[in-house]
Amino acid sequence: MTYLVLTTVIRRTLRVPTSAGAAGDGRAAARQLDAVLLKVGFKASKELLEHVAGFAQPTAYTKSIVDAVRGLVGDDVKHNPYFLTFPHDVPDTAEFWTDCLRDALARQVPAEELRVNGFFNLLAMPEYGRRRHTYEELLAAHDELVPSIKNRLTVLHLGGTLEEETRRLYLDLAASPTVLGEADLALFVELAERIGEVPEDIPLRENRAVVNAARLNGGLAPVGVDTVTDVLRLACQASGGDVTLLEATRFRSFRRSERRVLLAALDEVVAGNAGKLGDVPQRREAWKRLGERLHPHEYGQWPHAQDVFAVARGEKATRSFAGRTETAFRAGDVRKAAEILTAAPGMLFRQLDRLLRNGSADDVPVIVAAVRQVVPEVSGRVVCSVLEHLENRGKPDVARVFANRSRRAWIAADTRPPLDAHAVAAITSVLEDDLVRRLPAVSGLTVEPAALDVVVPLSGNASEDGFGVQPRGSRVPLDGELLRFFTYWRQTAMPTDYDLSAVLLNEKLEHVGQVSWTNLSDDGAYYSGDLTNAAEGATEFIDVPRHTVRTKYVVPQVNLFSGEPFTKVAESMFGFMGRDLDQLGKPYEPSTVQARMPLNGYGNIAVPVIFERTETGWTGTWLHLYLRGTPWSNQLEANRDMVRLVTSGVLRRRYFTVARLAELIRRKTTVDAPALHIALSRPEGRHVVTVDQLAKLLEPGGSALLA
After folding, report:
1. Measured between alpha carbons, how far is 662 from 447 in angstroms, rounded to an integer?
2. Rounded to an integer, what distance in angstroms lies between the CA atom of residue 538 and that of residue 79?
3. How many CB atoms lie within 10 A of CB 692?
4. 28: CB partners within 8 A, 6+ apart
5. Cα–Cα distance between 455 and 696 in angstroms, integer?
6. In the chain, what's the furthest Cα-to-Cα distance?
7. Cβ contact 552:93 at 8 Å
8. Interaxial angle between packed helices 334-341 and 321-330, expressed in degrees from 0 to 180 and rounded to the nearest 10
9. I need a labelling partner for 463 at 20 to 30 A (CA). Which of 265, 334, 611, 616 fits?
10. CA–CA separation, 352 vs 348, rounded Å?
11. 404 vs 419, higher pLDDT
């Protein structure tokens, strides 16, 4: 377990917890560690090397460090493509299939196996989809990697003890002002149960529910509960369900002691304010199901808790807040609706577009006044989200792209009328002024150039776990003339075939070509070959040399052709790397990997990123989207138009980026304050804030990041 915790901390923080081994001369092991890390694209800091050099037997410790970073960039598996000499000698598609057919006939494969519905069955040909070489033969066929100054080099720093670093990670997750993604949420649940501490700062109700679920297991009362919905979240989390309440939860049977804790918490909330019963009808069915597990009628000492379930069953009437708001809207009284919504600042911000769409020019000052009144009570991430939304309401979108918490995407036509520019400008001014008020004062600001076009993380659901991964809409430059992206998967129980493909688009986002198993090369881009089984793992690559292609945009996608979906395979990943055109090396060189992420969305077509060819190089824009597709036989030809619409919707949207936030920070400069540097990763030195920490700057206590 210690090994797993150690590698997890290193991968999440790029900080290596200290070891407590016997003292001795470990200088040779330290040098060896540094050499191995360099091959994977990492560098140990001076302090880390000195720490390793002070141990007599640091082998197990250094192995854990290497294992952690190799797994981070996907080098913990063997990447062995179909074509032995890839990227060289990729054949013409028709010639390749003809050769496979000749081989099948020579092997006397029965004719009926070679035809399906009048077409040749590629999968029946012995040479198709199955490697005919070992990984060792692949290594022998490729020369050593030629180093390049453009190769990535990520520094590992020395941290505190394992207990200190684990607790620090736990507190950082607890203090997140944005909803955690699935991987971070799972880790937070594990740490909450392991550590058992109640952090002082838990701004999100979802995170409070995680901490309270761990307390419930110990028979302890929840903390930070002030709405009935907080108790519902707690019950969902304790049942292994969805703490965000977006999906229905099957509640487990609770012990009597747990039922007492939950009902006592409900009773206390409602006893202090009966109006909070108005939140119950919104999730009436969930409350009914929970009531079947809590048996509130057996606990007469908590009558207010019984009222919650009476409202859910329709036995007790209550006028919900949402109901009063809807009444005002139906009456056409936008001013009344705005007045009601000031009692719930978060809901006012969610209804802001509706208020502006339905209000007249005379109503706008009232709406602006309502926003000005409540904005100090709204979280910084919500304010930024609304600013981003308003910036995109000047004209209808080409396509409205939606994505749920599992990043499943769907598209709808934008039928909304544009918002009045003057109204948008007035509200934008109010929101920006409040953000400036929240931001800590700085004497100066510098931003790493590569971070300027990264989207400020406002929700964990808009990104993925992994290495070098940024939120949806972020634009990141790539090093090297040659763009290479890849997918790897390993099946759990049944034969599984994923297909890496690429849609090629011109400046107008029109389809001009493709690279896939049905077209091994196009416009200078080429494919490493189709693997159709992944019992021992399978990797597919596509190379796109910038100087030979004419296409403007390259959109990779990973299609489930047959077998297990992304959520069922043993493991899967997508990533990309950049190389110089003359660089040698095997197809997968970890030091050239610029980003790697798992594929775990609930869809059968993954569309992780889009690449743009520029005059000076490549730029990637993160998408993090999954399309529903079909249960099997998904392929590029059938979904390329949908992919084009999705990518156009994301590309043409304006996001709240680091550059936009930097403009606001510069409005709050003063001499008597620390300077601030914003970077993608944390270098040595103080007053550095990484992109993933930026949302904390907008919340109470954000100035502590500059300490």
Report:
1. 8
2. 7
3. 19
4. none
5. 14
6. 84
7. no
8. 160
9. 616
10. 6
11. 419
Characterize 53-88 residue by residue with b for buried, 16 or more Cβ atoms within 10 angstroms of its Cβ, and e for exposed: bbbeebeebbebbbbbbbbbbbbebebbbbbbebbe
On whether the CB atoms of residues 75 and 39 are closer than 8 A, the answer is no
Give the pairing of strands 482-490 and 538-545: antiparallel
Question: Helix (H, G, I), strand (E, B), or coil: what is residue 630?
Answer: coil
Residue 98 has pLDDT above 60, yes or no: yes
- Name residue 489's beta-bridge partners: 538, 572
With tokens 């091994």, the residue in question is: 520
In angstroms, what CA-CA distances link 61 with 16, 80, 214, 374?
Answer: 10, 29, 31, 52
Which residues on neighbouring strands pair with residue 595, listed in sequence order?
A: 576
Enter the pTM of the model.
0.92
The one-letter code for the residue type at 404 is N
Give per-residue burial for 208-225: e unless 16+ CB within 10 Å, then b: bbbbbbbbbeeeeebeeb
Report d(CA 221, CA 273) in Å as an integer. Answer: 20
Residue 172: Cβ-neighbour burial (10 angstroms; 0-12, 13-18, 19+): middle
CB atoms within 10 A of CB 418: 12
The secondary structure element, H or E, covering residue 286 is helix 284-294
Is residue 157 helix, strand or coil? strand
pLDDT tens string 516-538: 999 999 999 999 999 999 999 99
Instruction: State residue 492's pLDDT score.
Output: 97
* Residues 60 and 6: beta-carbon distance below 8 Å: no
Q: Which residues contact 161 (CB under 8 A, 6 or more apart)?
A: 17, 18, 20
State whether the Cα torsion 74-80-82-83 is positive or negative: positive
**CB-CB contact of 523 with 544 (8 Å):** no
Cα–Cα distance between 253 and 289 in angstroms, integer?
Answer: 11
Instruction: Tell me the pLDDT tens digit for each residue of 247-264.
Output: 899 999 999 999 999 999
Q: CA neighbours within 13 Å on the CB side: how many for 391?
A: 16
Are 662 and 439 in contact, with CB atoms under 8 Å apart?
no
pLDDT tens digit string along 633-689? 999 999 988 888 888 888 989 999 999 999 999 999 988 888 999 998 876 556 788
- Per the CB < 8 A criterion, the answer to whether 392 and 418 are in contact is no
